[in-house]
Design goal:
The protein is α/β, with parallel strands linked by helices. The chain is built from five helices and ten strands. The protein has a single domain, classed as Rossmann fold. The longest helix has 14 residues.
Length: about 200
């Protein structure tokens, strides 16, 4: 354990659910995301570090909105298959963007675990992952954010122009890095080189 650079660090996998494969969400980026999340889960599991899965249980009652596929009982609500290879220490259900506003209470659980910090990955980069990073940092947790273990979708700007998923990801990285988290890569985390911000 003494040689493990992430001893006591918790991997938080946000909303890695089948419903995000629905074409109604639009064009996505980062096809390597799922492999990167799976690699992080495998690494955490092999080192017996704490593992948290977060599931978005949508309360959306408009079936025409993409988020309706995340409603409990719908096939899209299910976690992605590769997460079944490792049993989480905690499963959080939420209805909003932040994993810290769900049940059970993630912040209280992390305090009880005396967590050294959190590594956040999942779907989507700029919504539930980014919000979880921001809230987690504001609550006093050290945060690593391997951003290539996330993906997002193209979004329309209020001025009518379209922002690509890659542009949105770059904006998220610039907003979070050295302010809320160390925005890093999966490879850096797996190599033990990603460190929290000072």
């Amino acid at each position: 354990m003494g040689d493990d650079p992430y001893a006591g660090w918790v991997l938080v996998v946000v909303d890695a659910q089948k419903g995000f494969d629905d074409p109604a969400w639009g064009a996505r980026n980062n096809p390597a995301c799922d492999d990167n999340i799976a690699a992080l889960v495998d690494d955490w599991s092999s080192h017996d570090r704490p593992l948290v899965y977060v599931r978005h249980d949508s309360t959306e009652d408009d079936a025409n909105l993409p988020s309706a596929v995340l409603t409990p009982g719908a096939p899209g609500n299910e976690l992605r298959d590769y997460l079944g290879k490792a049993e989480p220490h905690l499963l959080v259900s939420k209805h909003v963007n932040s994993a810290f506003h769900g049940s059970p209470d993630l912040h209280a659980w992390l305090l009880g675990q005396q967590a050294a910090g959190i590594v956040v990955c999942g779907i989507t980069t700029n919504h539930c992952c980014e919000t979880t990073v921001r809230v987690g940092a504001n609550l006093g947790h050290d945060v690593l954010f391997p951003i290539n273990a996330t993906f997002t979708f193209d979004r329309r700007h209020p001025d009518g122009t379209m922002l690509s998923a890659d542009e949105i990801t770059r904006a998220t990285a610039a907003s979070l890095h050295d302010e809320f988290a160390n925005v890093t890569t999966t490879a850096e985390v797996l190599a033990g080189r990603a460190r929290p911000i000072d």
